[in-house]
């Protein structure tokens, strides 16, 4: 079977394989992926027990398709028609939205990897969601956040990732009749494969790609530190990107970092924000075929590939891009919809602009 779908109970014990109609399957970098499964009402495996909310799902692909396994849980909504029913499935990250901190959970001078591990371990101890631990990045700066009733997925995406510009990954696994998930946090997910793999027009890029140059463009940025007054005692930092100003004219912006008291931290914020916004970022939506010069099995979410579109941009487009989203529709053979971003775009999101001082969240 080219695609195998396994159902398990909420503890991961496999209940059996099923053969529903599978909707588009999405993998997303540091975001929640999704798909849906449609069953005929007459299907003997389309039971309340098998399709209970929280039950786990594992989708595996044959080698000729070349895609990684997808795993998650069944979640609302459940859609009924006269002849069939459709369940929505979300990747395992979705469950982290339903586990939260208490009134206060504080860390002191702790790297993000240790915070990630500790919080997920505490979650598993309270009630397991089937997580095991893989690579845990131990680098980066020391942070002292305090979380108040925040859910775990918010902590990971809005705090840890933004503090250090790191990536997380939750990989589905099947062992001893159980579906589990390997949780990892890494400095940067993926590899630079732009020297050997490419998404190329007329080769493995099909249809009509969309290239969007995004803003805003800002070339002078002011970072403002903590304080309740606006006298000389309140620290500020201003950074300008001269080349961008010459090209686009003066474009200013500012942000107050209410918990930052160190001048060096403000200087870093100002520099990074000005540089990341000094020219428009480029995002492309395209449909890729499972053909050279980049087979599906050769790249994954987070990898960097070369993208060559001679008929796009002012002088043709040929740049390194990072794969941010991949979606496969099983009803369309040998195709994947991709969202990729030019290097300046994903570097903008991964510059480590988090607060290194005590942070109230």
Index terms:
361 residues; alpha+beta; Phage tail protein beta-alpha-beta fold; 4 domains; seven-stranded antiparallel sheet; seven-stranded mixed sheet; 5 helices; 16% helix
The DSSP helix count reads 5
Uncertain ranges: 348-359
User: How does the overall form come out from the CA principal axes?
Assistant: globular
* Lateral strand order in the biggest sheet: 2-1-6-7-8-5-3
User: How many discrete domains?
Assistant: 4
- Number of DSSP strands? 23
Radius of gyration from the alpha-carbon trace, in angstroms: 23 Å
Helix content estimate: 10-25%
Strand count, sense and barrel status of the largest sheet are: 7 strands, antiparallel
Q: What percentage of amino acids are in beta strands?
A: 35-45%
Kindly report how far apart the N and C termini lie: 48 Å
Order of helices and strands: EEEEEEEEEHEEHEEEEEEHEHEEEEHE
Mean pLDDT: 92
Helix vs. strand class: alpha+beta
